[in-house]
Write a structure and sequence with these properties.
single chain, 383 residues, alpha+beta, Ribosomal Protein S5, domain 2, Alpha-Beta Plaits, four-stranded antiparallel sheet, binds alpha-D-galactopyranose
Amino acid sequence: MSTDRLTEAFTAVHRGRPEGVWAAPGRVNLIGEHTDYNDGFVLPIALPHTARAAVRRREDDVLRLHSAQAEGGVVELTPDQLVPGTVESWAKYPAGVVWALREAGHAVGGADIHLDSDVPTGAGLSSSAALECVVATAFNDLWDLGLGPVELGLLAQRAENGFVGVPCGAMDQLASTCCEAERAMFLDTRSLSARQLPVDLAAAGLRLLVIDTRVKHDLADGAYAERRSGCEKAAALLGLTALRDLAPDGLDAALATLPDDGLRSLTRHVVTENARVEAAVEALVKGDPAALGPILTAGHASLRDDFLVSCAETDLVVEVALAAGALGARMTGGGFGGSVIALVTEDGADGVADAVTAAFAEAGLTAPRIFTALAAQGAHRLS
Ligand code: GLA
């Protein structure tokens, strides 16, 4: 997807030339799932797959939005149409960002926008965060707002929470705006301090496969909100600001005071998952990425058995990948379908991919999409 192609497509739709072209990536999270709305730790990398936007400011306040991935032509929105919960389909992501910017007091006007993305949708790889972050980044540059990547990521999260209506944490948007090439970002979602850790899997003879199951189960949204409120309830019952405040050595005593198994298992996942992020960081700092393997697999078991966000297809990928020699594997993202990551040796990568593909064929499932994840850079201007 060259900038020339994007510029040409912009011209075909909007006439004239864009003022610039920007890109923002999707992400995979190495470990730290469902911890971001518990003030906990996450460890994502940005993918080379990006949403791109060619943008030109307008004299008026109107948004004219176009997407290469959508039928139906230009979506035109006047400021009074930027009402939370009313904009449909893909247009709610760019529109939500403009809404969030204006809500935050930034006097941004209208724009002509052409979007194009190669971040797989519905795969748990944050294609919507990429759309939000590319628009936030473009508007920041065009209106000279002077916002940094953390502020832009938080604005994009605000768009998702307040305009799109999904009560997500901040991981996806902050990964898209803040990640760095060849680094994993160890982010404390409470303090928002980040450490960019070198992750050179190839030097260790390893690879990270992303295996998109191509399934997305419908209950995803409601179930996400339920998990989140369950965690908040458990924290409140324990007298904590957030489950992040519970240390592993206090876990058993805390669990004994909770009233039901549901809250106990949500709590156990969050506390053990935060500890797994810290263990993964230690492995990366020591230059021992192979040690990530068992951490990933333990993370999957916790998401499957305690947090209950896995599904038959992601469980199948994990099981088959491990049996075929993967060092570790787990679902990544919110769950109920989407993608699995598998840490494999260079030599064993094809064998794992083939085994998963064969198992899907045997189970009568659509062939999974499999690619190698490389840690790419966060949102930036292309031209
Ligand atoms: C989704 C949300 C994130 C995060 C993950 C689970 O991707 O958007 O904020 O909660 O699920 O880790």
